[in-house]
Amino acid sequence: IQDLKGFDIKQVNCLDDFDRSFIHSAIIKWYGSREAFTDFVRGPLRDELLKNSPSSLAYIPFGYAILLGFVCCSMSWEYMVSYLKAGSSPTWIASYVVGTILAYNLVWTVLALRGALYLCDRLARRSPACWDYLKTALCWLFLCTWQVSGAMIQEVAKGLGLEVCIAWFGFSLCLSAVSWRLSR
Fold first, then answer.
1. Do 67 and 110 form a contact (C-beta atoms < 8 A)?
2. CB-based contacts of 146: which residues, under 8 Å, 6+ apart?
3. 76, 135, 130: which is closest to 108 by C-alpha?
4. What letter would DSSP give residue 184?
């Protein structure tokens, strides 16, 4: 998408001359000239595509992000049922729901996915093979570090009580709000 800034219809190749003349005549009919089409691709089309691309951090629509978050929550709901059956205290169950299910599984994991998509888009430019491997390793390292740090925070928060879990949830919601705000 970034390359559309330098798009030029004269640089586009077509294997069949009939196709080339057909496409160019349609472009002239719809846009008035080849230059007008080139300007459209460089300007409004590029802007629209950038607005809806992974680089905008809004690649995952909010509803889909929540749906993905609930997938991550499914196993934790099973654990919660086992904690309930084992007779865990209501305060500990509430800490588990707020700290693990909501803060970590729902919010933190969706943020990890958004961050990974953002990095993949930013680092996608072709490089020599060794640099491509390094960029892939950096994306993987980011994702692992993000998830492990979140898991550690949620474990500590659960151990310290419901108030700390609520603070952890608030912190993760604030990060999420900043992320969604930056994507606009």
1. no
2. 108, 111, 112, 115
3. 76
4. -
